[in-house]
Design a protein that fits this description.
The chain has no helices and 20 strands. With about 280 residues, it is mainly beta.
Length: about 280
């Protein structure tokens, strides 16, 4: 029997829900920021699958490109401000039966580090089934044929951020452009500009304000982050409008609203585009 491993990596650069289930693992929370006097975070894991599964937990380093994609850093020692050296996770491996919960502790160990933001990703990986070939019951009607077993190995990457001493950030929106054709949906392109020593994280809200009538929300993208690796991020947002039916005259208003772990929405930036 041939076994093919499918490696599926799920990144959480920021999604504005508090838990997420993927690959038979439910985890809460999916983004952590250590600031102020906070030194401990608890992760709640639940195996939502039908089989007993072992999950390994470690740290990885990623950098962000201007299109928002994350790229794994092959040499973490080259990074200036990783968070991993100041973090401790325990236990580092758990085996969970179906439906079994587990609490994982993440501790921030304070050290005299420079002001600003430090970031690493906490990586939860479901280990593959190491059962010897032939130990599972085979279908006697198909034993003479070649069979292929697909085993998905899932990984969940959660950003862990440390912010120390004086931090500051500001953001603007620029290069707003409406792209549409008669045969396709409409898209809004724009750039998020970031300056300061920490990242931004929030929701993008797009509203259509017609010349007459009430404004209507036509798009929302939750959990948009701009890491300190970059000073700008290019965005393309699909609008909730009928294909082939252009928006009426007026303007579009775009808001970038901070919604960090404090759950206190703050406006980062606004932009408008006449149509």
């Amino acid at each position: 029997m041939k076994r093919i491993l499918l490696f599926i990596l799920i990144f959480f650069t920021g999604i504005s829900i508090h838990s997420y289930a993927q690959g038979n693992l439910l985890i809460t929370p999916m983004r952590v920021v250590f600031e102020g006097n906070k030194q401990i975070e608890e992760f709640n894991l639940v195996n939502t699958g039908k089989d007993t599964t072992t999950f390994s937990i470690s740290f990885l380093q990623y950098t962000m490109n201007e299109d928002g994609t994350l790229v794994k850093t092959e040499n973490p020692d080259t990074l200036k401000m990783p968070a991993a050296p100041y973090l401790r996770i325990y236990p580092q491996q758990v085996t969970l039966a179906p439906g079994e919960p587990q609490v994982i502790m993440l501790q921030y160990r304070r050290k005299p580090i420079m002001p600003g933001e430090y970031r690493s990703h906490l990586y939860f990986r479901a280990e593959k089934d190491n059962s010897p070939p032939g130990t599972k019951k085979a279908n006697t009607e198909t034993t003479s044929q070649l069979s292929i077993q697909l085993t998905a190995v899932y990984g969940l990457c959660i950003p862990i951020i440390i912010r120390t001493n004086e931090v500051k950030v500001s953001s603007t929106l620029s290069d707003l452009e409406l792209e549409s054709t008669q045969a396709s949906s409409q898209y809004l392109k724009f750039t998020i500009n970031r300056s300061g020593n920490i990242s931004t994280y929030g929701d993008i809200v797009v509203e259509h304000i017609p010349l007459q009538g009430k404004k209507v929300q036509i798009a929302i993208v939750r959990g948009v982050g701009v890491y300190t690796d970059i000073n700008k991020r290019k965005m393309v947002v699909k609008l909730n409008s009928t294909p082939g039916s252009p928006l009426s005259k007026g303007k579009m208003k775009v808001s970038y609203i901070a919604n960090d772990v404090s759950n206190k929405p703050v406006l980062y930036a606004e932009g408008e585009l006449g149509i």
